[in-house]
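Course assignment 3, question 2. Fill in each field.
Student: A.L.
Task: Predict the tertiary structure for the chain below.
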Amino acid sequence: MESRRPGEPMTLRSRGSRARGSALVEFVLCCIVWVPLLLGTIFIGINVARSIEVTQICRDSGHMYAYGVDFSQAGNQAILVQLATGFYITPTAGNGVFILSTVMLVGPQQCQAGGLEPDSGSCPNLNDVVFTRRIVVGNQSLLASNYGTPNPAYISADGSISSTGYLTDGTMRVPGFPSSLNMTPGQSAYISEAYFSEPDLNWNTFTTNQGIYSSFIF
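Answer field:
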């Protein structure tokens, strides 16, 4: 180590050592600010790209469901799995889930067709929007539908719900259905929901990811 007496001019080597030390301190201080910003930018960019992809997947699955594709069949479930390539999902497990629902507005004619009088005493779900079908593909433990969960006791293997269920059971009502979508009695609508968790974006204390959710009504 170079030494100098008090009052002796600083040599070029001493000045260079001090400059390097100052640069290192400045670099460390900059890293404290810029590294979190860089990681945050990467996180947001990945999440935005995946959100767009999930929106497209949800819309496509809803279109197919509304046009009559039966997703209770294994072959058609494989289509959903293929749509979600990159998210890791199987028909019964994985990091994602599709929730497909058919809903209908119950009117007097629907009550009578089910053998009930068209009044709220005999037909409790009169004038309510109710589930008439529910199909879940993927890991159903990841998400409960934002539109409600019908009683599974009334749901058959192909997802259809008996008239006894949707005319009388309170869990068949769709509390999350938008009131702005005016339906006529007997008219049906189709709801597609998709959710995918993102365990690879749970970066310990830096950030936790709640997954991506999307829904469409047709």
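Instructor remarks: The two ends are 78 Å apart (CA to CA). The first strand starts at residue 96 and ends at 105.
Grade: pending
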